[in-house]
Amino acid sequence: MTESKRQFCLYLRTKTAYFRTPDGERMFDPESSTACYTCLKTQRPFGPDARPADADSCATSSDRNCFEREA
Question: For 1-71, where are the alpha helices, taking DSSP H only?
Answer without folding.
Answer: none
